[in-house]
Amino acid sequence: MPLSPEHRAEIEAARATPRQTLRAVSEGMEAHLYRAHEVLDHGFVRVIDYMGDDAAIVQAARVSYGAGTKHVSNDEGLIRYLMRHWHSTPFEMCEVKLHVKLPVFVARQWIRHRTANVNEYSARYSILDREFYIPEPAQLAAQSKVNNQGRGAVLEGAEAARVLAMLKSDAAQMYDHYEEMLSQEDQQGLARELARMNLPMNIYTQWYWKTDLHNLFHFLRLRADAHAQYEIRVYAEAIARVVADWVPLAHAAFEDYRMGGTALSAKGVAVLKRRLAGEAVGYEQSGMSKGEWREFEAVWGA
Amino acid sequence: MPLSPEHRAEIEAARATPRQTLRAVSEGMEAHLYRAHEVLDHGFVRVIDYMGDDAAIVQAARVSYGAGTKHVSNDEGLIRYLMRHWHSTPFEMCEVKLHVKLPVFVARQWIRHRTANVNEYSARYSILDREFYIPEPAQLAAQSKVNNQGRGAVLEGAEAARVLAMLKSDAAQMYDHYEEMLSQEDQQGLARELARMNLPMNIYTQWYWKTDLHNLFHFLRLRADAHAQYEIRVYAEAIARVVADWVPLAHAAFEDYRMGGTALSAKGVAVLKRRLAGEAVGYEQSGMSKGEWREFEAVWGA
Amino acid sequence: MPLSPEHRAEIEAARATPRQTLRAVSEGMEAHLYRAHEVLDHGFVRVIDYMGDDAAIVQAARVSYGAGTKHVSNDEGLIRYLMRHWHSTPFEMCEVKLHVKLPVFVARQWIRHRTANVNEYSARYSILDREFYIPEPAQLAAQSKVNNQGRGAVLEGAEAARVLAMLKSDAAQMYDHYEEMLSQEDQQGLARELARMNLPMNIYTQWYWKTDLHNLFHFLRLRADAHAQYEIRVYAEAIARVVADWVPLAHAAFEDYRMGGTALSAKGVAVLKRRLAGEAVGYEQSGMSKGEWREFEAVWGA
Amino acid sequence: MPLSPEHRAEIEAARATPRQTLRAVSEGMEAHLYRAHEVLDHGFVRVIDYMGDDAAIVQAARVSYGAGTKHVSNDEGLIRYLMRHWHSTPFEMCEVKLHVKLPVFVARQWIRHRTANVNEYSARYSILDREFYIPEPAQLAAQSKVNNQGRGAVLEGAEAARVLAMLKSDAAQMYDHYEEMLSQEDQQGLARELARMNLPMNIYTQWYWKTDLHNLFHFLRLRADAHAQYEIRVYAEAIARVVADWVPLAHAAFEDYRMGGTALSAKGVAVLKRRLAGEAVGYEQSGMSKGEWREFEAVWGA
């Protein structure tokens, strides 16, 4: 339960005083503002601010295409057209600012998405809290035998217990030592910028993260994907639910064209065309490598 | 007079229906929303949307620095500290979206600022309007004798008259030909994406341009500078006035540290220190090149 | 014929003096260095410098994946895997710097690709040459009846002749006036930064353009596409031929997965699966809009 | 001693086989290629590739300014002019690719510089080595009393001994546990992407990092600065020494205008002018805040 009563009171206070604006307003997003969506054991995602809505995407596209776009009968059709044809700039006209609390090892994956603005809590300047990510038993998975960067079966029995105990006691001990290095009676106290290096990467950090909708969709495509690590995927999924309320038309197009769709290589197109013409085409006839075939087969059958 | 009565009515309608929001609101910016600030003979700058205010900059900085920043007594002091120390990320937490109408040759300078989102009117898709930038007589300047990219004295008499007449008649003729190429009785009509190439670069285009406050300040520093070309500088100045109402504390810090300040090289520091110690230090003793000395002298005297 | 004998001699001189380096060398790219690939009537693309080769992509990927990647049997397989899974960072480890001469209206499309470094010839500082793009008769196309941003049939007879004559005489006249405004006996001469605004957008400019291979592939995907405007597509095609010699494995993967492949929406996948199962599925059963169906049908049949 | 004999042999082999190229070559940089510059106890910086040299900066600038730049007598003068006037694009025409081994907490500061390409060793995919940063006794500093993000006096005696012992034993224990979680007899073995979260942030990682010279100078200005954390500053200093050999003219201009220079606010300019005119101006007369005055005084005296 990551939120203290004080924190909840603070959020409710922020939500209690609406103000007037002439800007585009997304009612779906207003309902999310400031509220913490809990993720993992101590993390959260909160919407701090946003700019634009579905209509803002359409408006920007019509600036580009001028009167010519008027024949597209409605906003939904235009948004789907833009998504289908990779016209990314109208989606860049929406922006969102999130407050995220997340384990450091998740933050290190996340920051690889460079087209975003970030203000992270500074452990040079301030002292980190005693909060560590400890996986649920259901997430304590073995190394995958087939995928070098994936998980296999869930650990059980003594092995699971031993791993959990280690994670817990190590985190506690490292934080104790962090505190002892920082200050103790009759000591000078190690500089915070040094003491932090003793902390493990499941400690929580937090940041403000701001990005535009196009880059957010790119983030979601990679991180809400089934191959993403579970611990970042749950953040992506929480954000995706928010986006569905913020820009429902754009989100539906994203689901259809990106998350639910698939890409075919020239070889893949050729195989499907031959199959549609009635030919039995398998791995040997495909011209694909084993890896490619495995992925093709997963969607289209052997 | 760039705005038609219809356009004015459209703006007033957009301003007539405030809505409620829980987001940060800048009253100074609300007063600007949608209104067109006229620039040059047919251009304008309009604020379409914004995110954040002075408090949002402070809020982001306090996420980074944690409890440690509480000793900075007030928001103004913190914002000035951030500006002075080139801590740019809190300023990136504010965002603005502008609708700008501008001549093509100005747009070509402007677009060199790459950290921004742009949706420009497409002349492949739609037909450009018959609107060209024709300078005021006071802006019809000769080539500078001393600066390869600057202006000298204002043209006068017959030369001024002849140049103005040329600009006007050429623009009219080119637009006539543009129209004739696009369509005429018994003709197929040249593709718009081809016909546009006959238009001169003082024709007006328009775009939505979205950027964050840090990058906007960088744009203003270069383009509101006395050395910038007049025709882009007037846009920068119009934007700067809007920014002053949007984030007054950040804008004041920007004025003090960037626009009103100056940078000194190691050599410049050395010269000033010697002068402060009572020594007469001129060009010969400075170790600077002629160009450097000219710029140093302009601020600090010979 | 864009290159003067002097220019050719300069290029040959630059090519005459190889030096020693310890860096990665692409023999295919060395053959292109400095040579001008002629594009349109006065344009060109020249490789000025490059960093990396196919092996550099593999090397960067192996840094990321460590010993684990050793089981991928060869470089080609790894490069294809990276391309298939949108692992873009290894491709970013290659960089190319081009010198391009191009009409201004093409440059305005090109610059929309923001993740690149650009140094353009300055018409504030210097005087532009008298060189304009005049289309070949085969490129003088009518506006498309079905596509708002495309071309239809080639113009013929009197219309073609009249359009060509206009383009030629207008360019000549505008350049004459440009020169007359810049300087004439007994005149001060208009500032270059002002006089340039009278020039039409088919005048040639030039720039150094530097980007990484990932972003270059993105540029090629959009600009070497059949829907891109012909006048930028020929530049993209010239660059694509250079890339094929520079990084042949990466280029082949790009051709297979991006240029020759296709994307399917969730709806498109569903239609194909039903067809593969023997069902006749047409527009009415597809759940697609007319536009989507038209594009789907173009690849997969009605 | 970070480099094994095998690693040294590999580097010497890579350096043993020069090849011919027509590209710009920097002799100063060739001498650095592949060699590891040792940093901290197990880290290093190695140049893997580079593009351009001082002449390439000049060449790009001359494309922009055309014939007009010929009056600048020499390359050094032009490079200093570009640096002085913040003309950043010619510096972007040079690129460098580094292989860096560094502690995770340093990597987390470094990655905040977003305009760069990065391929980091993946701890999802592969197993990290048992290498941790343990500070030299001289770097084991107390928290600064005056600067929230800085260091004070060096720890001594029992406190220093205790801190060092903790850092060492914690690192050893955490790595032991990491190995035990990954695999042990009769165990399935925890997924690598999970086990890594138990490792402290002084463990070493490595990456390929590629950026252009303009952004590299920006990185050096912030990270080679006296206020940067020591552990990242030593990397910046190692890189700065390499840059001095790569592009000596650009590096000298950077030293003079950025590292050795200073910025003055409008208030600072006013104070200095009054002092130069003979007036005694102190804090009370300056109009500055206490913090600003402290920084001003450090350069210019009370």
How is the secondary structure organized here?
The structure is a homotetramer of 302-residue chains.
Chain A: H1 5-15, E1 19-21, H2 27-30, E2 36-39, E3 43-51, H3 54-65, H4 75-84, E4 95-103, H5 104-110, E5 117-120, E6 141-143, E7 151-154, H6 157-182, H7 192-195, E8 204-212, H8 213-223, H9 230-246, H10 248-259, E9 262-264, H11 266-276, H12 283-286, H13 290-300
Antiparallel strand pairs in A: 2-3, 3-4, 4-8, 5-8, 6-7
Characterization of the model:
Chains A, B, C, D: Catalyzes the reductive methylation of 2'-deoxyuridine-5'-monophosphate (dUMP) to 2'-deoxythymidine-5'-monophosphate (dTMP) while utilizing 5,10-methylenetetrahydrofolate (mTHF) as the methyl donor, and NADPH and FADH(2) as the reductant. Chains A, B, C, D: Belongs to the thymidylate synthase ThyX family. Chains A, B, C, D: Pathway: Pyrimidine metabolism; dTTP biosynthesis. Chains A, B, C, D: InterPro entries: Thymidylate_synthase_ThyX, Thymidylate_synthase_ThyX_sf. Chains A, B, C, D: It comes from Ruixingdingia sedimenti. 4 copies of one chain form a homotetramer. Chain A folds into 3 domains: 5-131 and 202-259, Gyrase A, domain 2; 134-200; 266-300, no CATH class. The two termini of chain A are 46 Å apart. Chain A is flat and about 80 Å long. In chain A, strand 2 (36-39) and strand 3 form a beta hairpin. The first copy, chain A, has helices at residues 5-15, 27-30, 54-65, 75-84, 104-110, 157-182, 192-195, 213-223, 230-246, 248-259, 266-276, 283-286, 290-300; strands at residues 19-21, 36-39, 43-51, 95-103, 117-120, 141-143, 151-154, 204-212, 262-264. Helix content of chain A is 46%, strand content 16%. Chain A is of the alpha+beta class and 302 residues long. Chains in contact: A-B, A-C, A-D, B-C, B-D, C-D. At the A-B interface, strand 1, strand 3, helix 3, strand 4 and strand 5 of A face strand 1, strand 3, helix 3, strand 4 and strand 5 of B.
